[in-house]
Amino acid sequence: MKIESATVIVTSPGRNFVTLKITTSDGVTGLGDATLNGRELAVATYLSEHVVPTLIGRDPQNIEDTWQYLYRGAYWRRGPVTMAAIAAVDMALWDIKAKLAGVPLYQLLGGASRIGCLAYGHASGADLPAIYDSIDEHLELGYRAIRVQTGIPGLGSVYGVASSGGAGTAGTVRYDYEPAQPLGVPSEEQWDTRAYLRHLPTVFEAVRSKYGPELPLLHDGHHRMTPIQAAKLGKSLEEFDLFWLEDCTPAENQDALKLVRQHTTTPLAIGEIFNTVWDYQYLITNQLIDYVRSAVTHTGGITAMKKLMDFAAIYQIKSGFHGPTDISPVGQAAALHLGLAIHNFGIQEYMKHSAAALDVFHTSYTFENGLLHPGETPGLGVSLDEDAAAAYPYVQAYLPVNRLLDGTMHDW
Ligand SMILES: [Mg+2]
């Protein structure tokens, strides 16, 4: 059996997705997600111009060898574009292998370690009543863990708050937060870390007292604090028992988390902008994080993520795979098969894709009683309707940028 063709499909049902479809000489097809939010065409071009020509004629069953061929063979290693491209090939080959075996992919990864993957949803609001409404809606949908993001008094649009202007698609509903916006240039948001540090603990105090001690609550700091600010925040949130504080500092300065750790027992999650196990080596061996936030899509696929999670397991570090709607249903399915199989699963980020996206991607995964399950369809369990995809051509869209009140560029 050989790889006969590989095609890159870019579609924008409400937001952009990049998908690789590999077809074997036996007519078996596999799908891989290569979506890199705001930089989609860079990966699409990397795949179509540089990767696809090298795939034709290869044995689709040799997944490890193909991974090493693409990683080592490029010479220029790592980075989000390269690793998303490798991830797409890797996912598609695992999809094919599981289809050939006639089993859902998680069976090839060791079988199920649990009945389902605990999911967390994104609740947000400009103020407390709006946040309560959003949490209530998520609880009614069945979520058993909630990320809480809040507006900050005195600031306009801020990260993670749907009602304060994150609308990426026309007529989007309030909780369908899609930060990439179809504008010619990125939109600009405002930030004031001191105002945030004052306000956020008051929100968690109110939410914790309203919803009681059991509900797992999460928060994303989105890389905005200095080490000492993050230490202060972790300490001030400790009494509200967060499941995790995510991306409290920019991920590049890894020693920052040593300072944070010295001051707080609030669990830390990081890694959604990381691409390889090497990005985690220092953090994992020094036990500076509690959860790995990588997306299977951005970290070289299932082959690489399985190794990363096995490495993390030695240090009792668990998964918290990145899974907002900029991960396509293909990438989400890959995360669910892996999450179901590994022993050190922690939690899975989950936002339901739009009706338009689910018109293009047909999925077999389910969300019930707060748990996600990848389903029992052989392979990844996702198919792509290419006619439906063609009806949604690529739309240029950018993630916002962020400035302090005096105009200084800051981390978004
Ligand atoms: Mg995040």
UniProtKB/TrEMBL annotation:
Coiled coil: none annotated. GO terms for molecular function: magnesium ion binding; mannonate dehydratase activity. Residues 128-267 form the Mandelate racemase/muconate lactonizing enzyme C-terminal domain. Signal peptide: none annotated. GO terms for biological process: amino acid catabolic process; carbohydrate catabolic process. It holds the Pfam family MR_MLE_N. It comes from the Bacteria. SMART domains: MR_MLE (SM00922). NCBIfam families: ManoateDhtManD, PRK15072.1. This is Starvation-sensing protein RspA. It comes from Subtercola lobariae.
